[in-house]
Amino acid sequence: MHEYDKKILSFISRNKSATIQDIEKNLGIEPSAVSSVIERLASQDAIEVSKQEEYAIKITDEGKEYLNSGFPEEVLIKEIKHIGGNRDLSLIIGNIAVSWAKKNRWIEIKDGKARLTKEGEKISNSFEYKPRELLKTIAESPKQGYATIVKERRDEIDVLVKRNIIEIKQHNVVKEISITKKGIALLSSEEKGIGQLTRDAITSEKWRKEGFRQYNISAETEKIYPARMHPLHEFLNYIRDIWVGMGFTEVSGPIVESAFWSFDALFSPQDHPTRDMQDTFFLSNPRTIDIDDVALLNRVKEKHEKGWGDTWKEEIAKQSVLRTHTTSVTAHYMKKFGNAAKGDYPIKLFSIGRAFRNESIDYKHLAEFYQTDGIVIGDNLTLANLMYIMKSFYKNLGIKAEFMPSYFPFVEPGLQVYYYDEKKKDTIELNGAGIIRKEITDAMGTNKTILAWGIGLERPMFNFMKMDSIVELYKNDIGWLRNREELKL
Questions:
Q1: Residue 21 to residue 34: CA distance in whole angstroms
Q2: Fewest beta carbons less than 10 Å away: which of 21, 67, 165, 315?
């Protein structure tokens, strides 16, 4: 037994129980060493450790603003009530206000206007909004009261955390340590002899007289946590290796993109629901991004007005957005490689990157996620070629891909790729795919056939990690990251 183990175990035995503070004060051992010994003795069942959960809650600057002036959705409702019950969406500043007002069923969106529902009309100046009431309770509560608030209102607390209104940290505090029967037996059976070789033991030749204690090479040691790659990035690298192994070349592009490359160049009509502010994050800085290729701009305009029978507006195409898919990257490369030198085909490209959509969060949806997109440019390519590529890709992931016909504005014909998750008893959509429409290839100035697909990458990770939700990937829980199982790739 180590010297510190014996000292601490003897102290707890004499006092029947002790706290970490008692041990540090009376034995003069460094706090880090005390914690290490306590953990080791507990793992040997020599002591019992009573712990209590404690929380540290911090209200962010954004939360302080909401506490003083009201949540954005509260402010929005008061504004709409003040002007008569409805307001143009284009005049509303702050997408978050609309999103939460809709979620609370205070408003409905119709004909480009936000209108009060019956629930919204009931809201008065004296209305107490639960999230703000909770925020006020946290602000006025002493630190020792945080545990009770979290226990009683955990779901509401989680919402405030997700909205970056509060930051919360949980830690277990050791309240009391007591010795067990096994610990008492361990003390009484302690062997004689030197347990630690010191300068004094050598110079005094004490070791000759007392000898050494036996060294137990099977004894448990303190767990070491080496540096590890985040599982998501480990998985992304694996995806990258799959594509490269299939003969594809990686390309990349900007996260902040114009609506032209995110939608218009892909033949998505300008009034398509995916452009609605509830799905797309529009930016105020920069508000617009210019398109330098005037000839391409005119060809896209012609295809839209002919194909969709509506006036195409350049100012809409110039809107600045966070890309909603990484297909915007491959759109650039369709144009770049649509007319490569003879003999270079087929050209096989892929990209991996983040995409953003203002979606409701559940176990398989997030507002920010990773995608991998790919295209094959060549001659005489068919749907059978595309299905073979998809099956080959998912085979590397141990997933049996299935197909069903589906509609996407930029492909014809289109496919939905999916698999059935036995654990969740749910059909998990993996990606959309298809052959790029003639309207797009014509606008890009190429007569080649282009196969295309876009794959959300968090969902396939269900196959490799014991996760109940993809939200777990972004919690930054250091305990989970240290102790997670290795990815079985």
A1: 10
A2: 315
The CATH classification number of 232-483 equals: 3.30.930.10
Helix %, strand %, coil % of the chain (to 5) = 45, 25, 35
In 3D space, the residue among 328, 329, 352, 359 whose CA is nearest the CA of residue 264 turns out to be 328
Answer whether 349's CB lies under 8 Å from 374's CB.
yes
Q: Which helix (H) or strand (E) holds 393?
A: helix 383-395
Q: For residue 52, give every residue at least 6 positions away whose Cβ sits within 8 Å of its Cβ, in sequence order, or none.
A: 147, 172, 173, 175
Intervals of CATH 1.10.10.10 along the chain: 3-57+171-210
| CATH 3.30.930.10 domain range(s) in the chain | 232-483
Instruction: Classify domain 3-57+171-210 by CATH number.
Output: 1.10.10.10
Structure-model confidence comparison of residues 254 and 200, the more confident one: 254
How do residues 117-138 score in pLDDT, each as one tens digit?
888 888 877 788 899 999 999 9
CA nearest 101: which of 83, 115, 84? 115
* Cβ atoms within 10 Å, residue 10: 14
Minimum mean pLDDT range among 220-224, 396-400, 476-480: 220-224
Q: What is the rounded distance in angstroms from the CA atom of residue 257 to the CA atom of residue 289? A: 7
Q: pTM for the full model?
A: 0.56
Does pLDDT of 214 surpass 70? no
- Alpha helices (runs of H) in 60-205, residue ranges in sequence order: 61-69, 72-82, 95-103, 118-122, 130-140, 146-152, 154-162, 181-188, 199-203
Q: Please tell me whether residue 463 adopts helix, strand or coil conformation.
A: helix
Which of 313, 430, 415 lies closest to 369 in space, CA to CA?
A: 430
For residue 258, the one-letter residue type is S
Matching residue, tokens 């290729």:
293
Please tell me the distance from the alpha carbon of residue 347 to that of residue 343, in angstroms, as a whole number.
10
DSSP-derived secondary structure letter, 484:
P
DSSP state of 439: H
